[in-house]
Specification:
By secondary structure, this protein is α/β, with parallel strands linked by helices. The protein has a single domain, classed as TIM Barrel (Alpha-Beta Barrel), CATH 3.20.20. The protein has 12 helices and 8 strands. Strands 1-2-3-4-5-6-7-8 form an 8-stranded parallel barrel, surrounded by 9 helices. Helix 2 packs across helix 4 and helix 11 packs antiparallel against helix 12. It starts with a helix and ends with a helix.
Length: 267
C-alpha cells in the first residue's frame, strides 16, 4: 500500500487528522532540508509536502516566492530535491513525502524518468500546481505505474462539473484551497470551508486536506474539526525567512509551531 493511503488509514483508525507541513526544498540552503524534514516529523507531521523551487511560482504569495529565490540562489534543482528524499529515506521509511511544485521542471526531466526516479528515492506522490486534470493522463499513467499519487488542488470558486473532474482524476488526497488568493492569505472562514467540503464529499471518497490561512494551533484545530488533513506552509516558511543563518533557531521554531498545531488538533 502507498504510504499516503496507509497514513490516512492509520489516522482514521486512531480517530486523528493528518498534519501536513510544507517547506521549500533547498531553503535556506540544500544542506539543511533533510534535517528540517526530520524535525517536522519529530514534532507531529504525518505527511511532508516538499516544494520544488521554481522561478515563477504563480500560485504562491511573497513568503514562498522568497523561499524559492533562496533555494534557487543555491541552484537547487528537481534532481537535488529527489536526492533529498532519498537521503531522508535512509532513516525514515514510514512518513509519506509528496513533491509540490510546477510542471516545467518535471517536463524538462521527462514524465517517465521523473516517475521512475521518484519511485527509486521513495517518493509517494506529486502535486503539480499548474497541471490541469484534463491534461494529466500521460503523467498520471507513469505515476500510477510506479505507485505514486497524483494530487490536485481545488478552489472555493471551482464549478461543480470541474470539481467532479478533479475528483475523478485525483488520488491520495485532495488539497482544498480555503481562501481565494495566493499562499499566505490570511482570511479563513471555517464555516465556509465546511460547506464546501460537504459538497466535495458528495463527489469523492478521497481524504480532504485544507490549506491556505492556517498559521497556529487555533486555526489548525478549527480546520481539523471539518477536514481530514490540515496543510500548513507559509507560517513555517516564515520561520525560515526570519532566521536564514541560524539553523538551530529554525528547527526550534518549526518544532514549536508543529507541536502547537499537533496538540491543538488532538485535544
Amino acid at each position: 500500500m502507498n504510504r499516503v493511503d496507509q497514513c490516512f488509514a492509520d489516522l482514521k483508525a486512531a480517530g486523528k487528522k493528518a498534519l501536513i507541513p510544507f517547506i521549500e526544498g533547498g531553503d535556506p540552503n540544500p544542506s539543511l532540508t533533510v534535517e528540517l524534514m526530520h524535525t517536522l516529523v519529530e514534532n507531529g507531521a504525518d505527511i511532508i509536502e516538499l516544494g520544488v523551487p521554481f522561478s515563477d511560482p504563480m500560485a504562491d504569495g511573497p513568503t514562498i516566492q522568497l523561499a524559492c529565490e533562496r533555494a534557487l540562489a543555491h541552484n537547487t534543482s528537481l534532481t537535488d530535491i529527489l536526492g533529498m528524499v532519498e537521503t531522508f529515506r535512509k532513516t525514515d521509511t514510514k512518513t509519506p513525502v509528496v513533491l509540490m511544485g510546477y510542471l516545467n521542471p518535471v517536463e524538462v526531466m521527462g514524465y517517465e524518468k521523473f516517475a521512475r526516479r521518484a519511485k527509486e528515492v521513495g517518493l509517494d506522490g506529486a502535486l503539480i500546481v499548474d497541471m490541469p486534470p484534463e491534461e494529466s493522463e500521460e503523467l498520471a499513467a507513469y505515476l500510477k505505474e510506479n505507485d505514486l499519487k497524483m494530487i490536485f488542488l481545488m478552489a472555493p470558486t471551482t464549478p461543480e462539473v470541474r470539481a467532479q473532474t478533479i475528483c475523478d482524476h485525483g488520488s491520495g488526497y485532495l488539497y482544498y484551497v480555503s481562501v481565494k488568493g495566493v499562499t499566505g492569505s490570511a482570511a479563513l472562514d471555517v464555516d465556509d470551508v465546511k460547506s464546501n467540503l460537504d459538497r466535495i464529499r458528495e463527489k469523492t471518497d478521497l481524504p480532504l486536506g485544507v490549506g491556505f490561512g492556517i498559521k497556529d494551533g487555533k486555526t489548525a484545530a478549527a480546520v481539523a474539526n471539518v477536514a481530514d488533513a490540515v496543510i500548513v506552509g507559509s507560517a513555517l516558511v516564515k520561520c525560515i525567512e526570519e532566521n536564514p543563518e541560524n539553523p538551530e533557531e529554525i528547527k526550534s521554531q518549526l518544532g514549536a509551531l508543529m507541536s502547537e498545531m499537533r496538540s491543538a488538533m488532538d485535544a
